[in-house]
Amino acid sequence: xxxxxxxxxxxxxxxxxxxxxxxxxxxxxxxxxxxxxxxxxxxxxxxxxxxxxxxxxxxxxxxxxxxxxxxxxxxxxxxxxxxxxxxxxxxxxxxxxxxxxxxxxxxxxxxxxxxxxxxxxxxxxxxxxxxxxxxxxxxx
Length: 140
Hints:
Elements: E1 24-28, E2 33-38, H1 40-53, H2 78-93, E3 99-110, E4 113-122, E5 125-134
Antiparallel strand pairs: 1-2, 3-4, 4-5
């Protein structure tokens, strides 16, 4: 009994990978409407925004590789979040080959909210982002 899958595909010459284009619909957040098309860094800003705002493993329309794992973070104390959020962001972005990493990670705590700020390095340039997280018991 074979352990590995058997295929009739000719793989002697290797496999070539082709980058997918970044051209996508431009969503104007101010008007909440699609306003044409965008490409390059502007498309990456939207991709990063989508990854950060989609709960990973929750929505069936997205693959298990897409999104950020916020569950288990909301309601935690700031000390725990400071140790975990940066790693989860790196994990969320690691599946997109156009994203090279994050830098300038920082956070502030105000009342029952933590705001994390970070810069995402992409093949098209850098883009700054923020995200808010609710804390338990009003802060640290």
